[in-house]
Specification:
Elements (H helix, E strand, L loop, with lengths): L1 H22 L4 E7 L1 H4 L7 H8 L5 E7 L5 H11 L7 E5 L2 H5 L10 H17 L3 E5 L15 H18 L3 E2 L1 H12 L18 H16 L2
Helix pairs in contact: 3-9, 4-6, 6-7
Organism: Pedobacter cryotolerans
Protein name: G-D-S-L family lipolytic protein
InterPro entries: Ester_Hydrolysis_Enzymes (IPR051532), SGNH_hydro (IPR013830), SGNH_hydro_sf (IPR036514)
Length: about 220
């Protein structure tokens, strides 16, 4: 009889444990979808790594989905495997640097109209998959102030296009371009072309990664 009682107690405890695990909320899955800046974001002190250190990892699962050299249409082509199949709660779209930068030299950048069309297509597919979306403006290609870097005019145009898409689709905007420009104006006293937020005019140093993480954090935390 005692053995039966112990067995029943054990089974009941096991059932309660399984039920409690089933009822435990899953962590919010966040995917950062982008290029080499995002690829490097998972490295030590990268912006995704910094975000992880700022959050309760039992409540948030952060996934980097960045590939070096990618442009907006590359993201569209790999969206199924790298985003949709993972069923994220939230997706940050952070792309545009290569679309502008690669217009120089190899001339393989993305025309403005095509950039916006592919960006809108990303939004449509990701939302249809049941995920929330945050749009990010591209950051810098050169850190000099007052719009004197070679492609500042294009970067400003493409960033403004992303702002327009955010307004059109009623989506949150993580305005990294503005955050970087404001930081340069306040801190780049010697008007250097690199070394303030980037290592090479484009890819982020520790300060740049922290700025991106700090700018993104409120959007990650928003229910």
């Amino acid at each position: 009889m005692k053995a039966n009682t112990k067995s029943i107690t054990l089974i009941a405890a096991l059932a309660i444990f399984i039920l409690s695990m089933a009822m435990k909320p899953k962590p919010k899955k966040v995917i950062f979808f982008g290029d080499s800046i995002t690829q490097m974001g998972v490295w030590k002190n990268g912006y995704i790594d910094v975000l992880k250190k700022s959050l309760d990892t039992t409540k948030f699962e952060l996934i980097g989905a960045g590939i070096g050299g990618n442009k907006v249409y590359d993201l569209y082509l790999r969206m199924e495997d790298d985003v949709l199949n993972k069923k994220p709660n939230l997706v940050f779209i952070y792309v545009g640097i290569n679309d502008v930068w690669h217009k120089l030299g190899a001339k393989t950048g993305t025309d403005y109209d095509k950039y916006l069309k592919f960006y809108q297509a990303l939004i449509n597919k990701i939302q249809a998959n049941g995920s929330k979306v945050v749009l990010c403006t591209p950051t810098v290609i050169g850190e000099k102030k007052n719009n004197v870097n070679e492609v500042d005019a294009d970067l400003n145009k493409y960033a403004e296009g992303v702002r327009g898409l955010a307004a059109k689709n009623n989506l949150p905007l993580c305005d990294l371009r503005k955050a970087f420009v404001d930081y340069e104006n306040a801190n780049n006293t010697e008007d250097k072309e690199k070394g303030i937020l980037t290592t090479d005019r484009v890819h982020l140093n520790d300060v740049g990664n922290k700025l991106v993480a700090d700018t993104m954090l409120p959007f990650v935390k928003t229910p």
